[in-house]
Amino acid sequence: MSKQIETVAIIGGGPSGAMLGALLAKHGYKAAIFHTDKRPPLIVGESLLPAVIPYLRKLGIEDEIKSFSIYKPGATVCLNLNEVISASFAFADGRLPDYAYNTPRDLFDQSVLNAARSAGATIFNFSAKLEKADAPDTVKLSRETLDKAGGFFGNGPDLIVDASGRLRLISRLLDTPFKEGGRHDVALFAHLSDVMMNDVGHIHLDLLTKGWSWRIPLPGRVSLGVVINPEHLKQYGNGIEEQFDGYVREEPSLRAYSKSATRISPVVKYNNYQIIPERMHGPGWAMVGDSAGFVDPVFSSGLYLGMKGASELFKAICDATNRGMLRYEQGRHVELKKWQGVMEDSSICIARGRSTRIIRSERRWRSASASALQGSSPVKRWTTAST
Ligand SMILES: Cc1cc2nc3c(=O)[nH]c(=O)nc-3n(C[C@H](O)[C@H](O)[C@H](O)COP(=O)(O)OP(=O)(O)OC[C@H]3O[C@@H](n4cnc5c(N)ncnc54)[C@H](O)[C@@H]3O)c2cc1C
Asked: How many CB atoms sit inside 10 A of residue 321's CB?
């Protein structure tokens, strides 16, 4: 890529696509985001890292996010009902905020998309269709999509960005190579009222006899998700509601945390896997967010990686050289690899339930976050307490 880019089509209006659209529009690019509201009733990814806050500030939406979210001062890992490790985000030496938020994703995503619109990005509320183009390794918007966009792109945009999340539209279309991780769990999650929490505002990660779960406090409710090998769920019934309710009832710690709880939403299922594409850009196209790599949700890194990736891709687009795109891709690979290391450590600790492993995993998490954020350290101290 060496031609100056003027028009950019972004496929997907999730946080990564919307962040990129906002940055491009603000800097005078002609950017449009294709966005469809066809999403599950609950969207997974409700726990933010402190590292996301600078991006919310950049978009000017932190106060809005704060108004519908829960203040999050740290994280709690429950090895079992008696062994609890609490980590605070304090003492970040001013280089990182010492807090984050737990946020309803529908509202969060809407705020980021509104920020893109306010910055001047055009939002098309329909699904974009991509096709292979004539030249090898290239893609184009379908004629129908271009027509529906009312001539916005003329014969086509200078750059197409795949921000379609785990649909990975360009990867699938061009059959680009990727590395897959070993885990293939499923995540079932729902919102419940009156779930017990150990620490106010913290995300809670619970080691279970099979797999792990999250408890994320949201206004008036708690998001409870179990991440588990699907084989273990079959004994609880066929449907995801039966499986979720049955598992929460039978698993000792979840039973204790939810003894007064009521499920107040449908259950939603996500497949949990790791995929890192070998290539994140090509002639006239690039990928950002989950479509440019997904490692694992255990340490809430997804939105941070997506928003940071959008910010880095924006720089590469401004650079308008192949070198800029290569730098973008290399940077993403380095970062994804670091987080993958954190995930691998944590998988071992989940499998073995060993607190020493958790401490080691925490150190790597700290190092991954720190290097990503110019040397700051979000967690200074871990304390062990009994409930
Ligand atoms: C079980 C689980 C738990 C997680 N928990 C967390 C967490 O606590 N914290 C965290 O930070 N992350 C978490 N994540 C990850 C997080 O959800 C993602 O990293 C994040 O949503 C990625 O944002 P994105 O914008 O790249 O993609 P998405 O949020 O998936 O957005 C992509 C958008 O593109 C749209 N789209 C797709 N195709 C088209 C098309 N053809 N035309 C128009 N629009 C299209 C989709 O409808 C969607 O709106 C979790 C993930 C999983 C699986």
From this structure: 12
